[in-house]
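Q: I'm building a small set of examples for a reading group on sequence design. Run inverse folding on the following structure and report the sequence directly after it, with nothing in between.
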């Protein structure tokens, strides 16, 4: 990748004096924070593991008990780290966190003079209407700040669906015409989508990166308030050693019951968790791939992603690029911060359990690839901590499954052989409990570790009157928390089986296709849910039946696990329903601040999407409708051809077009075949070849209007009549 030395911009950014009030944290103080945080988690894990080992010891040690103990330590440590994030975050929010990026320097008074920032939105076969309306909202909000002249917008398409390709181009031109944004909002579709999202951004930087001091990455469903965008630039200007600032996007616009539960949990629990994360990260944070501002020069110079050795799915292109890019910036002494107290950063989430799992499948492979990145020379230990936690976020599920199976094996073996335990005294003299009481104590401790952060989040809300009102009151929030906990309990066994399957298939060398995320709230059909969940249901029935046959009393301890599996189909279908989401909102459950007092940006987006849906501008389009538009409609044809011809001025795109075959004589032959026999006569790759050739597209448009109807396929005659009827 083209590299640009960062020194000139760093010097430029430090030209103005910086007022810092608290003093910069020393490496020793930062190291102590990491030590205190993780020591707390390790100490808690050590104490509880000692109690658990004592329970195992009382019935005689064995190989299976060794496996069980190791799994318990790993799982409890991971849970304890999560709990400590909640505890430390709660304390910081009660006392006031002075060590956050927005408190380190006077950024409000900073001027944007001399700055230039690009807002880039990589897309891949997304809902075009939603993407463009989200960009429109962000653009208009930024315009109200009076700072629009410092920003440009880039739509970076990797779409492989020809109909979406055409719709992206047409709506892009409509957008710049309606906003008067010519020369302010740009559209570019790559000929090849090498490197996926990270390759898309790299291609942008190679072409336009030198023009911009910063760039902000948006996701297809992102919205950012104009004041938030301006604040991010000012924060970068005030902190010249910072290479990336990650906001914490709030989940919004959920309609299904599942989406609203996830949205509620995000808004209620995230503040204390991210405050706890920021406690020990302190400039050594992480990058989540979107809704973040990045300093262009160091990113271009240091964040070229390597291809991992070996075969896919572990080798090749790094899928979860964001964690690695953050690690590479930190390696070169550029700081990364969480601006978790900046409001006005939003995103949307999947509306159903199955769609959420499909997204997790992609993330799982990407995070497991980080196992090879962990040992890269020169990475900071903080980066390795981020990578390890990301990896174990998916390994925890197969570990939990193996823990349950190991316990069942031990208990089933004893029942089958009818061998009695040889009870021995425990090695901890301070516990005088029966084995049942001993096991129950461990169970209670584990439940406290899991649920304590939720209780602390409610207490944190109780002390903030304004925020309490924004959730609909403490009583309804408490009821919603109980409902969210019940749902999470049912969801956890499904997620355990899904993640375990993902990990196993990845280890067996089965990769994942790169597809668009389903973001609508159409709801899951019963047939689709059965095809996706029958394995969960069967597993729960068989597993539960075996336990019941061995010992009905033990069965009841496993009911939460079996219930989530057996009820997976109805839970998946019902929670995907927008009608139940609306019903829960009417009852005042799972409310969020953005629902009770929606920001103008979100309110405007909702109204516009509803209006466009009523006018029939959204929804699925007929097959090959895009091809019909660019051939028949002179307006759409002119936009398409002009964008194709522009690619000739970009050497990389021109070379890619040449490799594709654009400009060759056989393309005209495909055009003749297309006119005479219709789109079905061409293979998908042949359609793309024709659509990628500017001269052929101009020729097709002329021919469709010059030739008599008898010489054209019936399909084209119908397309012409539809255009004339508009």
């Amino acid at each position: 990748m083209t590299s640009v030395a960062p020194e000139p911009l760093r010097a430029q950014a430090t030209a103005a004096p910086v007022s810092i009030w608290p003093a910069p944290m020393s490496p020793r103080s930062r190291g102590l924070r990491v030590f205190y945080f993780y020591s707390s988690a390790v100490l808690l894990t050590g104490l509880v593991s000692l109690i658990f080992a004592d329970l195992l010891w009382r019935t005689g040690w064995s190989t299976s008990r060794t496996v069980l103990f190791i799994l318990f330590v790993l799982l409890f440590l991971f849970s304890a780290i999560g709990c400590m994030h909640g505890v430390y975050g709660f304390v910081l929010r009660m006392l006031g966190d002075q060590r956050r990026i927005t408190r380190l320097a006077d950024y409000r008074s900073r001027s944007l003079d001399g700055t230039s920032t690009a807002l880039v939105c990589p897309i891949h076969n997304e809902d075009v209407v939603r993407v463009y309306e989200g960009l429109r909202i962000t653009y208009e909000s930024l315009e109200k700040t009076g700072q629009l002249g410092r920003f440009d917008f880039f739509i970076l398409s990797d779409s492989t669906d020809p109909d979406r390709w055409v719709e992206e181009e047409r709506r892009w031109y409509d957008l710049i015409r309606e906003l008067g944004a010519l020369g302010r909002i740009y559209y570019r579709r790559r000929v090849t989508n090498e490197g996926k999202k990270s390759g898309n951004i790299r291609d942008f930087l190679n072409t336009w990166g030198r023009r911009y001091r910063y760039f902000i990455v948006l996701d297809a469903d992102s919205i950012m308030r104009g004041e938030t965008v301006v604040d991010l630039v000012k924060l970068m200007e005030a902190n010249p050693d910072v290479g990336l600032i990650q906001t914490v996007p709030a989940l919004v616009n959920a309609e299904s019951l599942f989406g609203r539960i996830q949205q509620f949990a995000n808004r209620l629990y995230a503040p204390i968790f991210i405050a706890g994360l920021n406690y020990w990260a302190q400039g050594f944070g992480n990058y989540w791939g979107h809704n973040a501002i990045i300093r262009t020069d160091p990113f271009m110079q240091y964040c070229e992603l390597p291809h991992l050795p070996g075969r896919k799915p572990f080798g090749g292109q790094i899928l979860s690029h964001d964690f690695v890019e953050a690690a590479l910036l930190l390696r070169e002494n550029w700081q990364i911060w969480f601006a978790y107290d900046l409001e006005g950063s939003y995103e949307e989430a999947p509306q159903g359990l199955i769609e959420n799992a499909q997204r997790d499948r992609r993330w799982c492979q990407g995070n497991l690839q980080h196992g090879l990145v962990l040992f890269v020379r020169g990475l900071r230990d903080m980066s390795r901590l981020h990578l390890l936690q990301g990896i174990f976020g998916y390994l925890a599920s197969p570990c939990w499954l193996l823990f349950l199976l190991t316990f069942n094996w031990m208990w089933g073996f004893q029942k089958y052989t009818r061998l009695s335990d040889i009870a021995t005294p425990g090695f901890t003299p301070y516990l005088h409990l029966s084995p049942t009481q001993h096991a129950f104590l461990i169970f209670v401790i584990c439940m406290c570790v899991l649920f304590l952060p939720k209780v602390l989040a409610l207490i944190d809300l109780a002390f903030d009157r304004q925020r309490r009102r924004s959730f609909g009151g403490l009583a309804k929030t408490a009821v919603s928390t109980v409902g969210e906990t019940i749902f999470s309990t049912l969801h956890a066994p499904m997620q355990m089986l899904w993640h375990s399957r993902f990990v196993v298939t990845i280890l067996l060398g089965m990769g994942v296709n790169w597809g668009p995320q389903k973001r609508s709230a159409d709801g899951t059909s019963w047939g689709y849910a059965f095809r996706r969940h029958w394995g969960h249901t069967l597993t729960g029935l068989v597993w539960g039946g075996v336990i019941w046959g061995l010992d009905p009393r033990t069965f009841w301890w496993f009911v939460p696990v079996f219930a989530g599996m057996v009820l997976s189909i109805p839970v998946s279908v019902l929670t995907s329903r927008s009608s139940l989401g609306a019903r829960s909102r009417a009852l005042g459950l799972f409310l969020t601040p953005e629902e009770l007092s929606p920001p103008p940006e979100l309110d405007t987006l909702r109204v516009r999407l509803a209006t466009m849906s009523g006018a029939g501008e959204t929804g699925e389009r007929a097959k090959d409708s895009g091809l019909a538009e660019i051939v028949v409609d002179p307006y759409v044809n002119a936009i398409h051809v002009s964008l194709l011809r522009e690619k000739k001025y970009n050497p990389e795109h021109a070379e890619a077009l040449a490799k594709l075959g654009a400009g060759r004589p056989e393309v005209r032959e495909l055009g003749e075949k297309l006119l005479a026999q219709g789109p079905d006569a061409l293979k998908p790759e042949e359609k793309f070849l024709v659509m990628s050739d500017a001269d052929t597209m101009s020729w097709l448009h002329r021919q469709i209007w010059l030739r008599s109807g008898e010489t054209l396929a019936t399909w084209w005659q119908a397309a012409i009549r539809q255009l004339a009827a508009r």
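The chain has 30 helices and ten strands.
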